[in-house]
Structures
1.
Amino acid sequence: MSNAPAPGGKAGLRPQDRLATLVIAVLVMAVAVAAIIVAGDFPPTMLETDVGPARFPIIFAGALLVLCAILVFNTLRAPAAPPDDLPQAGPKASYGTVAIGIVATAACLYAMEFVGYAIATPIYLFGLMWLMGRRNLIANAAIAAVLTALIYAAFAVALSVPLPVGSLFE
Amino acid sequence: MYELNMLLHGAQALFNQPMALLLALFGVTLGIIIGALPGLTATMGVAILLPFTFGMDPLSGLLMISGVFFGGIYGGSVTAILLKIPGTPAAAATAIDGFELTKKGQAGIALGTATFSSFLGGTASVFVLIFLAPVLARFALEFSASESFALAVFGLSIIASISGVSVIKGLIAGFLGLLLATVGLDPMGGFPRYTGGYTELFNVPFIPVMIGLFAAAEAFKSLEDPQVRAGMAAALDRIIPPWHMFRRQLGNIARSSGLGIVIGMIPGAGADIAAFVAYNEAKRFSKTPENYGKGELGAVAACESGANGCTGGALLTMLTLGIPGDAVTAVMLGALTLQGLQPGPLLFKDHADLVFTLFAGMLVCYVFMLVVGLGSLRFMGRILQMPKSVLTPAILALCIVGTYAINNSMFDIWIMLAAGVVGYFMQKWDFPASPVVLALIMGPMAEANFRRALSLSNGSYDFLYTRPITATLLVIAILTLMLPLLRRLWAERSAGGPSTINPAAGSSRMGTPE
């Protein structure tokens, strides 16, 4: 995020940063409102001296609403960044790679439930290495296998922590 | 003098039992490995080894378990500093500045400082355990639900000072964490809140959330970088911190160790709380508090000495009163009873020889930790020389397996992944992650103790100001919360105008976590 000083000494916000902050604040407010609504259905306490299960969640959600309102107010009030406030020089971030990485991780977890750690992990590691620009297929396969084996040895063999075997092999 | 004489006798007896020393060394080494692996905590390490102590003599068994405990608390700092994976909850605070130091190419110094600070904090705590056990145990007995609630509030007030530039964003992250902490069974009535029918959510899965927010989020961020081949070679050029650098931390380490020892004595407050409180106090006393969160060596020293100082404090109440200070000592309590020993004042009367031999062994365990720690750092540092295109997938695989290891639950891994995605976006928009973790740890403690205190006072809120320790802690908490705001107002007054920092804009450090 940018906060380059705007004229007058105040920090400035780029339009996309302002929008993102507002979207996050609204999302958090929505979560807080939902939490308050759900807490309304919590049963009253049986103890006279207790405040009940709903009191604390409502206090926390209420505080979130107030804080988000302050954030929205400050964000709307903040001056715009000058047009020459360009992002810092350096390699351009590749958000597509991040998105694919997250989806690949979810796919790995999904696959692990069926085929287990030993099959899902090396494929996942191989795919991520390829995604991150390593194009040597043989080396990648070897590294993926070695890493999978090392993690297995540390957890399953040395520390007796059972790793997922997958519903297909159970 | 009685204690000193008994300690010398104990040391003599200890060195006549080489097998006990070997097992202590094994315990420390295993503890460091367990602590460094994400998902495996010192508690788990002690629990894993507990059945093996059944056939051992009491000294060997208890020393091995103490070694795992001490090594486990320290080991979490290694991956926290090198990879921003806090191996244990206690290392979450260390990861904040430790990883920033690694990014600056000062991983060696950070690891060395962490090792020496852990050693000093832990050793000091064992000495306190030896000499001040009866006095301090009486003080800890004063703590009831209201004091524990006040302590939790004090811990939560730290959120303001670990929020970085934008206090509002830090507070939002903290309250989001507090709201998240209410997911699960209500601490008084056992009513399931926000669980959606999932029994897995009956207890707040904070370790998966912590691994996701810190480690997976950082790994996802690495995917952004197209220049992924470069490792951080030669980052470990020096491990022993230069004396002029370390000397400046001695006061900080002494204060943090003291805090850790006191916090360790309080039932329910463990090394994680000690580390965060020590971090906050180090920042408060620092001449350069603005450097905290950006790679400040003092932060690493404070967190590690605080967390390790907690070990002796937790053992103190467990051994003298039979009240475990944290989860690890609760398991250790089991180890003692397995050996036919009943913790409490009678333990010191009936088994004084064994107790003081154990204390001598604990001091030796810390020496082992220093030696094994320093000896293995260079090897562990080689991890940094791996290209990111190998390291990032390896970190993500470790996150998955480490999370699974906690409860053998696939559900936990999904929670970790969700927390990782949220953590990634939090990093992008300068919402600090550490307040969420702090809130997850302290929120349940605050709520449960507040409601217990309220019940004990028959529904009256008087306990908030009539009990001196509670009132003092609450006042300190309010001051701690207000301090960053007062500092900002003071700075604005001194500068003769409003701050150039926009609270809405957050940190200027693009994507740098607080």
Note: The longest strand of chain B covers residues 184-185.
2.
Amino acid sequence: MTGTFVGMPAFPEAAREAVRDRTLRGNLRHATHTIRAKRAGAVAELSDWAALREAGRRIKDHTLRHLDRYLVQLEEAVTAAGGTVHWAADAAEANRIVAGLVKATGESEVVKVKSMATQEIGLNEALLEEGVHAYETDLAELIVQLGKDRPSHILVPAIHRNRGEIRDIFRSEMKEWGRPAPEALTDSPAELAEAARLHLREKFLRAKVGVSGANFMVAETGTLVVVESEGNGRMCLTLPETLISVVGIEKIVPTWRDLEVFLQTLPRSSTAERMNPYTSMWTGTADEDGPSTFHLVLLDNGRTDTLADEVGRQALRCIRCSACLNVCPVYERAGGHAYGSVYPGPIGAILSPQLRGTGSEIDASLPYASSLCGACYEVCPVAIDIPEVLVHLRERIAQGGPVTRNGNKVVLKPAKGHAAERAAMRAARWAFSRPGALRGGQRLASRTRRFHPRSLPGPGRAWSGTRDLPPVPAEPFRDWWQRTHGGKDAGK
Amino acid sequence: MSSRDRILGRVRRALADVPADGTPYEQAVERGYLQEHGERTVEETVDLLAGNLADYRAVVHRSDAEGLPGLIARLLGERGVERVLVPPGLPPAWLSAADATRVDDRAVSTHDELDRVDSVVTGCAVAIAETGTIVLDGSPDQGRRRITLIPDHHICVVRVPDQVVASVPQALGRLDPVRPLTWISGPSATSDIELDRVEGVHGPRTLEVVLVSGE
Ligand code: SF4
């Protein structure tokens, strides 16, 4: 996997840097607290939330359990509807396929709708090497791209930038890429959005090739679904002549009807809206409506390795709503960049080390980037037990054991005097200095004792060895959070 | 070995620990969730639609069949619309009172031509009350996807109560997945700059929905 940010320090170092950056922390705190409060309201509107969450979990688990069958069914359906399906075992192969498809059109520019899969494989960089410019069209992605920056949040990738910074980036960079920003551009969000609208419209109207990801693929019908807000998705999906979608193989749902679950849980978990402004669904190609050529690139890149892990495979249920980021006390302080991957926050801490393996220092440290407070599990609309997977991965790193890499079973050696150990100790120190987070973590630590009868696994032993693990608090996490944080955050 | 075979082989090996399971899909997933949230009369459902549309900053109007042409003419007139895009199957009566020049939705129109149009008027396939969503499916009264995307102003006519459903599950049951579908909930919006909501980044900045009865 090429997605590692080059030269990225391991999580604790990166986090320490980020915590020192006061602007970043202010922006993040404002953002996560705002979304968190709104999300709770949007979820409370649905009296059957628990049933929807359970159905979502089961649909995804069932799909993963029969993934081979559904992939073949999807391929047949997309092909029958006029699309072409490609299979990519890793990032390099996916990039090769997309570059080849773009070059076959004779074009040297593509417009892109935000896609985590294409960020994961480093598609823009790979295309540039082939002489193809890929323009990100999501406003936040545009800010990130123009600022020569990295995204820091799944949903609001430029959350670390404030309006003044954005104005400066637009003023100095837009002219390098196309239509310049207006001379008198101020930092009002409406003016900034207007500048982006004009800058990008020029690109949309002339683009011949669009590149996207997808939120869902329906095996039964071959339908792809993209959920968005700005309309840049609709632009990329309908105006070009050729559309290339790069999608992880875990994004399948079996039936059309399954969308009724996720189209209720995703927007509310994600942007805290009843429904996002735009959802596009297409099945192959349509006569004289939208692209006349459609390619679907099905991406593995570590997903089948993740599937092979009995505990860790649940990470593949993720629908990338980002709710877990917004409730995570570590993410709030450290920011998305510290995770060294396109998948930040709690989900990134379990997904990246599984997709990429734990060979690098950053990946080995990621499972320690958590206080194990359990808030991420509480909000997850597909009930991924992130703390359980974190503890499992820590154990794997500290004690070694069998894993699957590139489809082959290998045995990891236990980490010794290694980054993970140091990472763990810093994470522990972080938690000790925050009684609230520690209390939450302890609840989880005791809950996961079934995996570790005597002590916490690996480096965690260092502190569980010198103290008794406290009993599970009678108070549920949600109530505790409400009591200790609720008052402070109210009205934010 | 092709990558297809390699990936499918890896999936099968990865799942070797999972016990075989022959449960048909219909039974594998329990659907204990609701088909509709709350009990409402037909009028209440339409009111909920109107409320949720407005909540997401769509402008909502109500009319009967007789008043519709006058209302559409007024909405276009207020904005000084000179050119209005028209899908091929739009009921001719809807625009019978409007002065604006009609531009037909044609496959050969270039994007730049469409960019010079002020407004578009369409019908819809279904509207979802609980979420404040209208869904277009490319039927003749709605036209190609791009015509409701490029102009800055979209008037969408919803026949009430026939085209209104309460919930997302009910909407999916009415839609044909093979058609290109666009779900619209309020105008285009972004919250990417310090989470301040700004309307209209790329799609129409103004969405007006006319709930028409007796059509
Ligand atoms: S892990 Fe759950 S909460 Fe986090 S992004 Fe994925 S689906 Fe959302």
Note: The longest helix of chain B spans residues 42-55.
